[in-house]
Amino acid sequence: MASHTISNQDMIAPHVPVAPGRRYSARVDGAASARVFAIPGRNADVALLGAKPAFAEMLLVGRPNMPDRATFMGRIDRMFDSGRLTNRGPMLLEFEERVARIAGTRHCIATCNATVGLELAISALGMAGDVIVPSYTFVATVHALWRQGLRPVFCDINPKTHCLDPDSVEAAITSRTTGILAVHMWGNTCATHALEDIAERHGLKLLFDAAHAFGCGTKKRAVGGYGDAEVFSFHATKCVHALEGGAIVTDDSDLAGRLRLMVNFGFSDEDTVKHLGTNGKMSEASAAMGLTSLESMDAIIAHNRRNYAAYASGLQAIPGISLMSRRMNQQHNYHYIVTEIDAATAGLTRDELVAALRLENVVARRYFYPGCHRMQPYTGLFPQAGRTLPVTEEIAKRVMVLPTGMQVSEAEVGRLTSRIAAIVRQAPAVRAALAQCHDPRLPPFLRQ
């Protein structure tokens, strides 16, 4: 790349912590300069090429939706007045009732988090041996199996929904298989009827990780009542949250009874233990936030839907970037803005685009790279898994998730999509600048 004169204010010294929105200067000493930008006159609209970042403060994926403070604090005051902090207090009972109503199920067992919820459900269902699971999921899904002593069998996904492919599931069943753990990825409902049919024909347990899917489903049936049980996440980054929390929902009364014992060490009364269990309870403070967040649920989803429409409008003309569509016959929380990057058309790889956005003070994420089959401890256990997961491998290289939620406005979405368009429009210069950039804001995978 040819050298050009640039000002000190356009440069950032290597290894200097950078605060969002702040300008830094660095003394230029020949080869010691940290960043080299592209041709002057073409750098007015991309931060990597010398322009001002699109955002003064970091725009993040997963920034919490904050419900009404006064309502939440009122519940905390009532908690203090009651002296009940945990152990199935009144707010916990109300939260479980409301979640069950939204999910359309007879039972809800709130948990301290969704990972513990998965572990409890796996154990209560009596899964053993091999369990079929997607590799393209948050690693907690697979950890929940492994920590219970089960062997995950990785299966491929549908390229449109990123959920388990039923044909791959059917082909993976052996005499050791006892269950299927499917994931409603991005809130997209799995091929539930096909998976239920497979599970019934083969005598398998069917559990759904519904961490992404609270408030989702078809127009006829909400996520919650499929299979033997489903597990929601109410982590702070989810559409509706409880600070930290989860919930298991089911229509099976016997299963629900076991789970209610297991979530509290197996106690059936004050000194009788009837089942192996753990401390998996949700606290009253989390239930208070969960209730308050539920009351904002309609407003949150409406805001997410408007942001999704703004993204759809802003991204539609950018070559090489496609936004995951939402099925018209489904309810959706629109909590994830999922794009796929075609490097050959966009002129940049997904990783290069994520890196360029970091210098715009936008933290886009490359979920769920590289797939659980390439993470520890599974990569050593299943070294050939990648050969049987072609869709997973391709999707893991292409997906980029963009910020949304109540703390992201439609105007900010418009500004972000305009900046993405500028980055793609100047892809050769962006790629050349990235190769010589040592800015500490770059993601770790480009700083190694």
Describe it.
This protein has 16 helices and 16 strands. It is of the alpha/beta class and 448 residues long. It has a seven-stranded mixed sheet with strand order 2-9-8-6-5-3-4, sandwiched between helices. The model is unreliable at 1-41 (pLDDT under 50). The longest helix is centred in the last third of the chain and has 19 residues, at 297-315. 36% of the residues lie in helices and 14% in strands. Helix 2 crosses helix 8 (284-295).
SSE layout and pairing:
Blueprint: E1 59-60, H1 69-82, H2 90-103, E2 107-111, H3 114-124, E3 130-134, H4 139-146, E4 151-155, H5 166-172, E5 177-183, H6 192-202, E6 205-209, E7 217-218, E8 229-233, E9 246-250, H7 253-262, E10 267-269, E11 272-273, H8 284-295, H9 297-315, E12 321-323, E13 330-331, E14 337-341, H10 343-346, H11 350-358, E15 362-363, H12 378-381, H13 390-398, E16 399-402, H14 410-425, H15 427-435, H16 444-447
Parallel strand pairs: 1-15, 3-4, 3-5, 5-6, 6-8
Antiparallel strand pairs: 2-9, 7-13, 8-9, 10-11, 12-14, 14-16
- Main sheet: strand order: 2-9-8-6-5-3-4
Rg over CA atoms: 24 Å
Query: Total strand count, please?
Result: 16
Question: What's the helical proportion of residues?
Answer: 25-40%
- Report the sheet-strand fraction: 5-15%
| Major sheet details | 7 strands, mixed
Q: Label the overall shape.
A: globular
* Structural class designation: alpha/beta
The helix tally amounts to 16
Average pLDDT across residues?
89
Low-confidence stretches: 1-41
Terminal CA distance reads: 22 Å
